[in-house]
Specification:
498 residues; 4-stranded antiparallel β-sheet; alpha/beta
């Protein structure tokens, strides 16, 4: 805290006290959300780069030409690792969600140039496509057409996607890999089929884009595949850049230009924005430039090699735990763990109870609810695991915790939402049913009662074990759950009463 006065030091101390309640971002204890290279040098390099550029506004590269240089170099880096030719161009965005939103906006606008400004197109994607595409369809008024995936593998069949294609499709989305189950979608089959029909095809490589280029034995997924028109790849995941930085790459200038918003229709300065934002921090842009320069192809290759070894070891360890198994054939440094349905019930391990038990041992895994697809098939409840280079250094205690946690919950039935629902008054249950449609408003009293029965405190505090809450998410109508979660998360940032 050197270089600041006493009052500023106290402010920084308060920030440190706030930060103390967060999950750790270093050391490999959190196996989702966090991407830790394990290098203190990279952390310091990023912090120093941000400091140098913290006052620079990325809004106008004609005023700050350094912004254009940084972005051009990062796009060139992304183009190189995705096998793009000299026609491939792109933009640095603030994260994967913005990259996905802009990919959809671009495809919609290009489609409307041909079909009509007020027509409503479809967006075709597997059920496992990231929720950012749900948001994009909602924001930009596309019909979201989700294709069911195989429940045993989490993978979508190419023929099932191709069968949905037609002239009303503005964009086909495939993942490299999908976040829920790490399935590599059949890009080599889908993209050429889309191309033959004159359709845009976006590869969402937000999580895999800076790992798969060095990952062994991965099927083609990038610009080598004819018909791939855009790719999103997050720098702030396996690029080890601070949040938030992502790349959106386009096959050519025409597509990149359609991403932009420009207007001179007001009395102020001409507005020309490549992204959703106007003013943008150049600090993270500089950090991304510095880290990609520092690591380069060799440095990323070494980090991916460590991650690959840790992923293989962790998968082998989990497969050896009675009652658990890995879903499908994951590609890259992530996977989903499910109960082994081939075992008798008394030998199975519910993945959500297991995740809660693992947390008691000091490690955080991410619970994923079971999900009913449009064809009525049920994707099993699972626990998501993201592996990073630091995982290699903590494998022994981590595997021990995973085994001990499984022993503690083996044979226990999955958490059941029925007791929570049964504890609610009959009139409240009736109102829950009426709130199951997307356009219904949720009564605050209903929300409070449901959250209280789920163990959520009035201050938004969560129960120590999340399996019951996840089961409740599975059991209630999606529209109701979504409204309840909005209310819950909104309450966390409500200012205190005066």
């Amino acid at each position: 805290m050197t270089g600041v006065g006493p009052e500023s030091q106290e402010i920084l101390a308060e920030l440190e006290r706030m930060r103390a309640g967060d999950a750790p971002t270093h050391g490999g204890r959190v196996l989702s959300y966090v991407y830790d290279s394990g290098s203190a040098e990279l952390d310091e390099l990023a912090a120093s780069a941000i400091r140098l550029f913290q006052s620079v506004n990325g809004l106008d590269p004609t005023v700050f030409p350094s912004v254009a240089r940084l972005e051009a170099d990062l796009v060139a880096f992304g183009r190189g690792i995705t096998h793009g030719d000299d026609q491939v161009v792109g933009t640095v965005t603030t994260g994967g969600t913005e990259s996905c939103l802009l990919a959809v906006k671009t495809a919609r606008d290009l489609w409307r140039r041909q079909k009509g400004e007020h027509e409503r197109p479809r967006l075709v994607a597997p059920t496992t496509a990231h929720a950012a595409f749900h948001k994009a369809a909602h924001y930009f008024d596309l019909e979201l057409d989700l294709v069911p995936v195989d429940v045993a593998t989490g993978a979508v069949r190419a023929d099932d996607i191709i069968a949905r294609l037609g002239p009303d499709v503005a964009l086909v989305v495939v993942s490299a890999p999908s976040y829920p189950h790490a399935a590599l979608d059949p890009i080599a089959e889908v993209a050429p089929a889309a191309h033959e029909l004159g359709l845009s095809c976006h590869v969402d490589a937000c999580i895999g884009g800076l790992a798969l280029p060095w990952w062994p034995d991965v099927a083609p997924w990038d610009f080598r595949v004819p018909g791939v028109t855009s790719i999103s790849a997050d720098l702030h995941k396996y690029g080890y850049v601070p949040k938030g930085a992502s790349l959106l790459l386009h096959r050519d200038h025409r597509r990149r230009d359609a991403q932009y918003f420009a207007t001179t229709g007001w009395p102020g300065y001409p507005v020309v924005n490549p992204t959703m934002l106007g003013s943008r921090s150049a600090g993270v842009l500089a950090a991304a430039w510095a880290i990609t320069r520092r690591l380069g192809d060799e440095g990323y290759g070494e980090l991916v090699a460590r991650t690959f070894e840790a992923t293989a070891a962790l998968r082998d360890a989990i497969e050896s735990i009675d009652g658990l198994t890995i879903l499908g054939e994951p590609a890259g440094p992530l996977f989903a763990v499910v109960a082994d349905a081939g075992r008798p019930a008394e030998e199975r391990v519910d993945p959500h109870r297991w995740a809660d038990a693992v947390r008691r041992h000091g490690w955080l895994l991410q619970q994923q609810p079971g999900f009913t697809q449009s064809d009525g098939t049920l994707l099993p409840r699972s626990t998501h695991v993201t592996v990073t280079p630091v995982t290699a250094g903590v494998l022994e205690p981590l595997v021990a915790a995973l085994r001990d946690a499984a022993d503690e919950v083996r044979g226990l039935l999955p958490a059941d939402a029925a007791p929570v629902l049964e504890a609610l008054p009959a009139e409240l249950l009736a109102s829950l049913g009426s709130a199951g449609s997307a356009d219904a408003d949720l009564d605050p009293a209903v929300l409070s009662s449901v959250l209280a029965q789920a163990g959520i405190g009035p201050d938004g505090s969560l129960p120590e074990e999340a399996a019951g809450l996840t089961a409740l998410i599975e059991a209630l109508p999606p529209a109701l759950v979504e409204q309840a979660l909005i209310g819950l998360l909104g309450s966390l940032v409500d200012p205190p009463a005066r």
